[in-house]
Design brief:
Layout (H helix, E strand, L loop, with lengths): L1 H10 L2 E6 L2 H14 L4 E6 L13 H10 L3 E5 L3
Parallel strand pairs: 1-2, 1-3
């Protein structure tokens, strides 16, 4: 992930993140912004899953990812 973020800064590419918790995602975004000056984090969203519903996403969530026009999307949904 770090190599992709470094490449994204160098090439002006957008990165996005989908998954985890709000706390973890916010910490990740903050750390990456400190580490990679100029990183373009165009999308960061922590879905609120209910038990037994780990793979469902709403059309709005999917459209938000598409609209962000990210070049790289990291997904972390756990096990």
């Amino acid at each position: 992930m770090l190599a992709v973020c470094e490449r994204a800064v160098k090439n002006g590419e957008k990165v996005g993140f989908y998954g985890s918790t709000d706390t973890v995602l916010n910490a990740l975004v903050g750390n990456l912004r400190e580490r990679y000056e100029g990183i373009n984090i165009a999308h960061a969203y922590s879905p609120h899953f209910s038990e037994g519903d780990m793979l469902s996403s709403t059309q709005e969530e999917l459209q938000s990812i598409i609209d962000s026009q990210v070049d790289w999307l990291f997904i972390g949904l756990g096990c």
